[in-house]
Amino acid sequence: MSEIEKLEDYEPRWGERGAEHGAGRSIIFLLIGIGVGAGLALLLTPRRGDEVRDAIGRGYRKTIDQLGERAHSLRERANDLRELAQDLGDDLRERGSNLLRFRSRG
After folding, report:
1. Which of 55, 68, 101, 104 has the smallest number of CB atoms closer than 10 Å to its CB?
2. Three-class DSSP labels, 15-46
3. Number of structural domains the chain divides into
4. Are 67 and 83 found together in one domain?
5. What's the burial of 79, exposed, middle or buried (CB within 10 Å: 0-12/13-18/19+)?
6. DSSP track, 42-93
């Protein structure tokens, strides 16, 4: 049987297509569930609307502050790593120069 005949007889297994279809469908249902749950939580909360908005605003500001602190920490760490890499590069350059001088003498 030639390769073309094999390809003509090929039928995909349902498990292969079903898995792709099922994963996409599961994600859609998950997102719908999150939306419905969030909507119900806002409707059924014992707080007034302005209290809920204030709480959301406080959470937003707290998250932004934490992200700013984290970004500052990461910048400091990146600068430290850059300085370390620069020092290591300088050290390697010096050792290479010393090695070349040593070999040229001998």
Report:
1. 104
2. HHHHHHHHHHHHHHHHHHHHHHHHHHHHHHCC
3. 2
4. yes
5. exposed
6. HHH-SS-HHHHHHHHHHHHHHHHHHHHHHHHHHHHHHHHHHHHHHHHHHHHH
Same domain for 30 and 9: yes
| pLDDT tens digits along 29-59 | 999 999 999 888 878 888 887 888 898 899 9
80 and 32 share a domain? no
Q: Say if residue 78 is in the same domain as residue 35.
A: no
Q: Extract the residue ranges of the chain whose pLDDT is less than 50.
A: none
Mean pLDDT, the chain, integer: 84
